[in-house]
Design a protein that fits this description.
The protein has 259 residues and is an alpha/beta fold. It contains nine helices and twelve strands. The protein has one domain: P-loop containing nucleotide triphosphate hydrolases (Rossmann fold, 3-Layer(aba) Sandwich), CATH 3.40.50.300.
């Protein structure tokens, strides 16, 4: 189980700073969904946590600064699935997902039965078993996305960072994916940070939401505290009604203007 702490994080690119002043904590086994309008800095925040983009501030996993960890230690601490992955040529789905087990391999670097079992279970849960021997490049966009997520899940890192994991997935596969992430969170104590455009999914699966707007934290709290018509109107320029499922989880419904 791994807790994640972010202190005064700022990140960006050559053109300038994209996000700044982000401070938050995600407890062990917690789920934080980062939401916000397009261009608010959600993906940049996750890239900063992995070290892909330059950043200032500090990031800790279980009290240890990420900057102090070796590459292997960092791979065990953080698993990351980017929104737009670079897929290697020539690998089958199984071979690609097995790459997620690399941080756990012994000195010989060979996968054992337990590694193969982890990958097989993930392929089944993500509806990829029938595609196991197919080259990655022959898959559809949604199938490739599921393979990328399977690789990140196979890593079994203490903290799992997923950038728009439901992009390109139909509603059934999106739900199956998020259900699996939620199960891993409860079974293994995995700490989850996702970016999500779908506010209904964010509110139904995540325990807490962090709303970014123009690179800064505009709101943070439970889904009930953040997903209000007033906040969404202000930050998204959107007309919505917030409905409730039987369990109290939110459903964000767009509304037409009155004539």
């Amino acid at each position: 189980m791994s807790a994640l702490r972010i202190e005064d994080l700022a990140a960006g690119y050559r053109r300038g700073t994209v996000v700044s002043g982000v401070t938050t904590t995600v407890g062990s086994g917690g789920w934080l969904a980062v939401i916000g309008p397009n261009g608010s800095g959600k993906s940049t925040l996750l890239k900063a946590l992995t070290g892909v983009v330059r950043h200032r501030g500090r990031v800790f996993v279980d009290g240890r600064a990420l900057s102090s960890l070796s590459r292997r230690e960092r791979a065990r601490a953080l698993g990351y699935a980017p929104q737009i992955p670079q897929l290697p040529l020539g690998l089958t789905v199984t071979d690609y997902v097995l790459l997620g087990r690399t941080p756990h391999l012994g000195v010989l670097g060979r996968e054992g039965p337990s590694d193969v079992a982890v990958v097989g279970a993930l392929l089944e849960r993500l509806d990829l078993t029938r595609l196991a021997d197919r080259p990655l490049t022959t898959l559809s966009g949604g199938e490739q996305q599921r393979a990328v997520l399977a690789r990140a899940l196979a890593q079994r890192a203490g903290v799992l960072l997923l950038d728009e994991p439901t992009t390109g997935l139909d509603v059934g596969h999106a739900q199956a994916l998020l259900d699996l992430v939620d199960e891993l969170r409860h079974e293994l104590g995995t700490t989850v940070v996702t970016t999500l455009h779908d506010l209904t999914l964010a509110g139904q699966y995540a325990e807490r939401l962090l709303l970014l707007d123009e690179g800064r934290v505009a709101a943070e709290g439970t889904p009930a505290e953040v997903l209000t018509p007033a906040t969404l109107a202000e930050r998204y320029s959107a007309r919505v009604a917030v409905l409730r499922n039987a369990d109290g989880s939110p459903v964000i419904a767009p509304t037409r203007p009155t004539m």
